[in-house]
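Page 37, continued from 36.
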């Protein structure tokens, strides 16, 4: 069970709220346009901007889509540069692995194992061990 109340505004929650606040500030859209697009109400939004309650994941998704982003974009921005770089490095590592698996799957004959090509393998398999 998580500690704290469900309306606790943690440091991570504050960073997410700050990113959302900055997106609105930099967007050039009016607050009313923002409310219409995101589906959030005036009271709901400002309560979160004062750190009285956290944004939930659905709120972040709606806010992100208002600005043509994904919720992951907002979370990554909230992580900060070091954490964002570490996340990007892990994603690149997985992509390299995925690319290699795709290459092997598409041309398995190029990635054979020498034991598979051994002309004596059947004879050696039948030879009893000492």
């Amino acid at each position: 069970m998580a500690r704290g109340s469900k309306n606790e505004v943690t440091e991570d929650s504050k960073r997410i709220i700050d990113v959302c606040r900055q997106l609105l500030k930099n967007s050039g859209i009016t607050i009313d346009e923002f409310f219409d697009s995101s589906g959030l109400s005036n009271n709901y939004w400002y309560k979160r901007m004062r750190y009285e309650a956290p944004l939930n994941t659905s709120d972040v998704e709606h806010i992100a889509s208002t600005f043509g982003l994904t919720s992951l974009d907002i979370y990554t921005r909230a992580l900060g540069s070091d954490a964002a770089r570490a996340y990007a490095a892990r994603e690149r590592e997985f992509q390299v692995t995925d690319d290699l698996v795709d290459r092997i799957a598409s041309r398995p004959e190029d990635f054979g194992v020498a034991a598979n090509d051994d002309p004596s393998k059947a004879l050696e398999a039948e030879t009893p061990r000492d």
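The radius of gyration is 26 Å. Flag for discussion at group meeting. The chain is about 65% helix and 0% strand.
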